[in-house]
Amino acid sequence: MAKTVYSLEFKVRDYECDLQGIVNNANYQHYYEHTRHEFLMTHGISFSRMHEEGIDFVVARVELAYKYPLRSGESFVSELSLYQEGVKYVFLQKIYRLPDRKLCNVGRFDTVCLDHGRLSRNPDLDAFVLRVNGAE
User: Which of 56, 115, 121, 124 matches a 20 to 30 Å C-alpha distance to 16?
Assistant: First the structure.
């Protein structure tokens, strides 16, 4: 199991909830995406710069497991782990309600690199994964 390498705190906003008063299922993907983007930006990785160079870092597969619902006004933390499987960069992400750290959601995001539209490995991202996991 990969270690947590980044966490980001949020607070549920009213408009993110459905008629049942719980966070709409689609919003978990937004929370996770924002966490991934913030994580990469803190390490100097810019999606716009990569895109300008012809490299697109995209989600290829998503798995989500809903464990416990979040409600309006609740605070939570989104945690992220990252490892590599061949050409895939796998983000394992979890959302815990605060302050009790009740597990609310678990996500796995398989991402890949497209170099000018072609699936490829990216030496910079390969090295980054090793570095954030303390293996370099």
Answer: 56
